[in-house]
Amino acid sequence: MAYVLGLIYESLAFFPEAMGNYDRLEFKKGEAKGAFYYKTVLRKSYVKFITGLKYRKLLSMVDADGGFYRVFKNSADEAEWKDALAGHGVMLYFFGAHDSAEAIFESVKKNSKLMPAAQFAQAENYMNMGLHQDARVVFQDLLRVFQDSERTDLLAYIYLRLGDIANIRGETDNALAFYMLIAPRLEEGEEVVFTDPYIIQSMAVGEYFMKTEKGEEAIAIFKMLSRGPMPIGLDLRESIALNITLLYHTEELELKAFSNAKEFALLYPDNAYIHQVKRIINDTIYKFIATVYENHDYHNVLYYYYENMRFVKEKRTLMLVAKVFLDLGFPEDARLIFTKLWNRYPKYTDIELLTGLARSEAMLGEFLKAEKNLRKSRPEDRTGRELVAKSWRLLADDYYRKGDMPGALKSYANVRKTLFDVIVELRYASLLTSQRRAKDAISVYRALLKRSITDDTKGKAYFGAAEAYSSVRSYRKAVINYQFALKLSAKKLSGEINYKIGEANYAMGKLDKALKAWKEAERIDSQGYYKRLAKARIKEVTIWEQARM
User: Fold this and answer.
1) What is the DSSP letter of 309?
2) CA 506 from chain center: how many Å?
3) For the chain, what is the largest distance between any 2 Cα atoms, rounded to a whole number of angstroms?
4) CB–CB of 176/205 below 8 Å?
5) Is the pLDDT of residue 436 over 60?
């Protein structure tokens, strides 16, 4: 009687009560190894296995496998030990040893008393191995067994899997037909009752619509399920939320997809498909920020960034935000992002990151740190080298503005290794002159004049060369270069150039030419600084010469 009661409780899924009856029978004095002993051990093992599977208790499942082994080794009844072997096969299936499980199922499949649990496991094992036709045969056998039974839950599962197999094999009409059999058809006007079969059917049909690219129909079904007063578990709610999110994304309903994805990521951070949800979040954030960044709408970039800060994790998005901070003059905020990324991706080949970090440090006045990062950079291609050179240029310009001429000179030298820029060349040569390296400066000016450059740039180069010659008292060459500069430069510079021609001529003792040049400077620069200088020099030299006479 205890065995029968155990079976009844087991069929009703009252597992503790079933185990109690099996225990009483197994350890009943005088019947320890009686006719029901191994049957009881077998049933207990299945109950332990199902309980362990349901509540994710690994030890319970291992204990169940021990019971299967005892029956297999000791029972003389072929049906018993084959059922035990099938139980071990089920265990292997759930632990992913599909080939071993299949070998066991093949060895016991002719057993007429093979338990449905083993048959279900065998069919699922075929599914995992891609043997869909073999799985279909087993499910069809199970359908014949349970066709007229009251086990609507098992029938729903069988129809579901037969529909899945048809779907996999491209038999879409058959798939939908099987799915529609999962729950009884509703009569017109009949209210929906959210039973397990109805939920299973709705999920299956919704996923079928997803696969057949009927997004609107699928969304309608899943939203109906999500709102229904149903006995739905957390796992199912999670699946519904995931499907709705993915469907919104597929249907290009970006704002709805983004909103759902953010909510899903917060509620189900450990979901197996969370990477797909995060991809939706990341892509949407990046797309928006990149668009407004390209439109130079920097304040909107920061607004969107702060609004979604907890989700902004991707490097490409953070790099854009950091650049905005730099462009708006917030180097401290930019450096926080660059440093965070550098700690995550410490690669000296990541030139964009390194140069961004260097730029933020330079803007904060920490030039030595900026230089250190730039010197460590290891660009692998021309683009990377150009990016580093541009960063050296920014650093050099900062040095130049602050009056640190040695720092500017070193930084411009690093720019020149990769990039040609006339402003860099002119400043570099000018700095060489100021550092008493006139010979090097003249070489730079000569090289610049050999290039294809504008007349205005040529004028500046001749003027710079003249200044270099003057600094080493090579006044004749200075005058020649000043005269070339006078012909090529803008008119507004004529006053300065004429004044300096006068100075060079006077240094060579050519008083007439000096006075002529100064008078020209005074005439041309009628309102400017060099008019006053020229006038003063004419007066000074005239008085001096008169005194000498």
Assistant:
1) G
2) 69
3) 150
4) yes
5) yes
Task: Count the neighbouring beta carbons within 10 Å of the beta carbon of residue 322.
Answer: 27
Mapped onto helix, strand or coil, the DSSP state of residue 170 is: coil
Task: State the SS3 of 382-410.
Answer: HHHHHHHHHHHHHHHHHHHHHCCHHHHHH
- 266 burial level (CB within 10 Å; 0-12, 13-18, 19+): exposed
The sign of the CA dihedral 172, 155, 121, 194 is: positive
Residue 48 lies in a domain: yes
CATH number at residue 97: 1.25.40.10
State pTM to two decimals. 0.53
pLDDT at residue 73 is higher than 60: yes
Domain count within the chain: 1
pLDDT band at 110; cut points 50, 70, 90: low
Per residue in 452-482, pLDDT (tens digit) is 888 888 888 898 898 899 888 988 988 889 8
Residue 80 domain boundaries = 1-129
User: Residue ranges of the alpha helices (H) in 295-381?
Assistant: 298-307, 315-327, 331-344, 351-363, 367-376
Average pLDDT over residues 260-282: 86
What is the length of the chain? 549
- Quote the CA–CA distance of 207 and 201 in Å, as a whole number: 10
> Could you tell me if residue 209 is inside a domain?
no
- Determine, yes or no, domain membership for 451: no
**Radius of gyration, CA atoms only, the chain:** 43
Q: How many CB atoms lie within 10 A of CB 402?
A: 12
Structural domain includes residue 364:
no
